[in-house]
Design brief:
Distance between the termini: 89 Å
Number of domains: 2
CATH topology of the largest domain: BirA Bifunctional Protein, domain 2
Largest sheet: 8 strands, mixed
Oligomer: single chain
Number of strands: 10
Bound molecules: 3,4-dihydroxyphenylalanine
CATH superfamily of the largest domain: Bira Bifunctional Protein, Domain 2
Shape: rod-shaped
Structural class: alpha+beta
Number of helices: 14
CATH architecture of the largest domain: 2-Layer Sandwich
């Protein structure tokens, strides 16, 4: 075998045996590079007798071509192998089931949902949201609301008292959200238009009572607000909340120390199986208390009852939630049972909006 053929065979064998791109490159350089073995053959061309030069040159070029071809093929083959290996190592198994994340697992408690619904409805009517502390003093929870020390309403409310303080007074767990009326009037100037949703506490427990429950208070104070406004606001609220076009309300005279006149409001309803339909039928259900703010309450916060007037109302939120979402036992609301919450709770993204029809 000629020297050239031998060199070619040797290099082709090396190319065939090579298994990575860097190694292949060094084979190319050592054969076809400037100082490579095949290039070196060409340098000897000058010393050959002229009649041999042509065929020698052709032979060497033939070897170069063959090597280039072999190098190119091998390079493609190695790149394919590398790609296949990378695809295999980076592949995602799309058959794996998706793990449910907190967004799908978590539940919004129906009370929170109903509070958000109420806030949305009143915010749309221009009300601010006000808050007060759960632990109240006697002044805000009772005295300023025209419930003096010896008043029977203090006993009626089954109050949780804290131990007596040095001055003989006791703090209480607020028995209603009405003290937020006092706090708001003391800290703001009229006109006032607020609702105050929150927790309240009374010593009571049965199917429709829990020691902690929720109310929302409403208060509007300015120079001319009257009972017509009260009626309109409540009607708009109940229609939006129960998602019906009509509600029929009945105002019954009542007594609350902090309003004069005071009323309880009933709504017309019908029971169909377990469902309660508001706005239909011929039964009446008591739903809230309200009235015109008592002059004594206005005086207690330094307002002049001859200048300022307005209305207040108080609604039990839990009762509204039970009615709207059909949960029969109030105690279940606060039992912390995950199965209950899964059934009655709302998705994290079910944010109530008026445009979206609220309790979506
Ligand atoms: N605070 C009352 C209660 O807890 C509810 C109430 C009635 C609030 C009439 C009011 C109102 O603002 O005007 O029973």
């Amino acid at each position: 075998m000629s020297e050239i053929k031998q060199l070619e065979t040797q290099i082709l064998a090396a190319i065939k045996a090579s298994d990575d791109l860097a190694d292949l490159e060094s084979i190319r350089v050592s054969a076809l590079g400037k100082k490579g073995s095949v290039s070196a053959l060409m340098k000897g061309l000058g010393q050959l007798p002229p009649q041999e030069r042509k065929s020698f040159g052709q032979q060497v070029n033939g070897v170069k071509q063959a090597l280039n071809q072999a190098l190119g093929d091998k390079k493609t083959a190695l790149a394919d192998i590398a790609l296949a290996a990378r695809l295999a190592s980076e592949s995602a198994d799309v058959t794996l089931s998706v793990r449910t994340g907190p967004m799908a697992e978590g539940r919004i408690h129906p009370i929170s949902q109903v509070m958000d619904e109420i806030n949305e409805i009143f915010a749309d009517m221009g009300f601010d949201i006000a808050e007060g502390p759960d632990i109240e003093d006697d002044f805000h929870n009772f005295t300023a609301l025209n419930i003096p020390a010896e008043h029977p309403a203090r006993q009626e409310q089954d109050t949780f008292y804290f131990p007596k303080r040095a001055d003989g007074s006791s703090l209480v767990l607020r028995t209603h959200t009405s003290p937020v009326q006092i706090r708001t009037m003391l800290s703001r100037k009229p006109p006032i238009r607020i609702i105050a949703p929150g927790r309240v506490y009374r010593i009571d427990s049965d199917q429709t009572h829990t020691p902690m429950f929720h109310q929302v208070e409403g208060l509007v104070i300015d120079e001319e607000t009257h009972m017509g406004h009260l009626k309109w606001v409540l009607e708009e609220f109940l229609k939006a909340f129960f998602e019906v076009d009509n509600v029929q309300m009945r105002f019954r005279a009542n007594h609350f120390p902090f309003t004069e006149p005071s009323m309880e409001v009933d709504v017309r309803y019908k029971r169909v199986g377990n469902e309660v339909r508001i706005g239909e039928g011929d039964e009446w259900m008591e739903i809230l208390g309200c009235g015109m703010v008592h002059p004594n309450v206005l005086k207690a916060v330094g307002y002049d009852p001859d200048q300022l007037q307005g209305f207040a109302f108080g609604v039990g939120i839990d009762r509204l939630a039970m009615l709207k979402y059909g949960a029969p036992d109030l105690r279940e609301f606060f039992a912390g049972d995950m199965r209950w919450l899964k059934h009655y709770g709302f998705g994290v993204l079910d944010v109530p909006t008026l445009a979206g029809g609220l309790g979506s």
